[in-house]
């Protein structure tokens, strides 16, 4: 018997500071979630209870992904990631994050 299906959503941020923000986010959460792994190009934070944050940086921006087992948790993850990114990117107007479900 398989577990519940995972829901995933993604947002793209155009910024030349993608690697820096990825690193800040992952370092921030690594204190609470020790299985966090990251490099300048990619980071993964396993939040537990089937919730995961993944980020990929390139020279033109940052792609953010969140995954969870239900819509309520997915929506909450989107908010947490957006809030933390806004804190770290306070010097830059990134605009609002437009999350889209990934099939």
Automatic annotation (TrEMBL):
Question: One Pfam family name from the record?
Answer: DUF2218
Q: Which InterPro entries does the record cross-reference, listed alphabetically?
A: UCP028291
Protein name in UniProt: DUF2218 domain-containing protein
Q: What is the originating organism of this protein?
A: Methylobacterium crusticola
Q: What is the lineage of its organism?
A: Bacteria, Pseudomonadati, Pseudomonadota, Alphaproteobacteria, Hyphomicrobiales
């Amino acid at each position: 018997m398989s577990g519940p299906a995972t829901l995933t959503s993604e947002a793209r941020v155009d910024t030349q500071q993608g690697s820096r923000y990825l690193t800040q986010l992952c370092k921030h959460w690594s204190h609470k979630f020790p299985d966090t792994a990251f490099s300048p190009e990619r980071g993964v934070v396993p939040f537990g209870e089937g919730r995961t944050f993944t980020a990929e940086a390139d020279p033109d921006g940052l792609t953010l992904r969140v995954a969870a087992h239900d819509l309520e948790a997915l929506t909450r993850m989107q908010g947490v990631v957006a809030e933390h990114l806004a804190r770290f990117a306070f010097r830059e107007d990134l605009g609002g994050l437009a999350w889209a479900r990934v099939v």
